[in-house]
Amino acid sequence: MLKHEVSELFKEHETLIKPTIRKCNEITFRAEKAKPWESKLGGCPYLEGISDYPADKEGRPMMFLAQINCSELVGLNHMPVSGLLQFFIRDDELYGLNAPCVVRYIEQYITEEDKLVSENPYEKAYKGYLPFSKAGRMYFEAGEMPLPASCEESFNKLFAGITFNEAQEDKLFDEFDSAGSRVGGYPYFLQSEPPFFETCNQVLLQLDLDDECGIMFGDAGNCNFFITEEDLKNKDFSNVEYEWQCA
User: What pTM, to 2 d.p., does this model score?
Assistant: First the structure.
């Protein structure tokens, strides 16, 4: 069983830190072909027919970002334990910023490859705005993390009235770091918390910089998909918030 350890440098604040700890699954990527139902970055989503592929409000095919096979996740609160989650954004130069995203939950799926679509039917029609250079397989490792310093408003509220010493200031972003790709846990904000974050703050997926598959949003940026705790418990993915930030 995992148990996040607060370092000696910040032990005096342990009673504040420990209640903020969340479980997460850190993601690593390998530029290799994934089966239709496996967790993946890009490529072809699980499709039983081309008509299942989502379109934006103008009727144009959306950009497929990622797919999570929930059975591959480890010990996350309220996440489905089976089924597939698929993440689509508007295909434009802003990676779908300020446009509705689509997160599809497929509770039951088949594993007979000859009955499934084998190639993304619209990838060649994308406008060249994919935020990664290679499709790949996603692998998960269980972890835990406290509220990060990059969630500046929440972090400052947590430590209101507390002055960190010089040694603590030097290690603040090491101790309370949230960079990296993950499911669950906390996001890494390069700018500021979005307005919805106070209530819609469960991380469905964070895609951060990665050399293996060349992930990057804008200028060294990342993206996040958020859901409310209640919607996550109910497996309702119709109101997911999506945004990306860069330096």
Answer: 0.95
Report the alpha-carbon distance of residue 193 to residue 228 in Å, rounded. 15
- Nearest to 7, CA basis, from 146, 112, 203: 146
As given in the structure block, the two tokens for residue 24 are 């997460």
Q: What is the three-state SS of 20-82?
A: HCEEEEEEEEECCCCCCCCCEECCCCCCCCHHHCCECCCCCECEEEEEEEHHHCCCCCCCCCC
pLDDT in tens, 22-71: 999 999 999 999 999 999 999 999 999 999 999 999 999 999 999 999 99
Closest by CA position to 245, among listed 192, 202, 197: 192
- For 8-23, what is each residue's pLDDT tens digit? 999 999 999 999 999 9
Return d(Cα 161, Cα 16) in angstroms, integer. Answer: 13
Residue 33 CA to residue 135 CA, distance in Å, equals: 8
- Alpha carbon 15 to its chain centroid, in Å, reads 28
42: how many CB neighbours lie within 10 A of its CB?
22
Copy the structure tokens of residue 5: 């350890």
CA distance 68 to 215: 17
Cα–Cα distances in Å, from 21 out to 5, 16, 42, 144, 174?
10, 10, 30, 6, 15
Tokens encoding 197: 């974050």
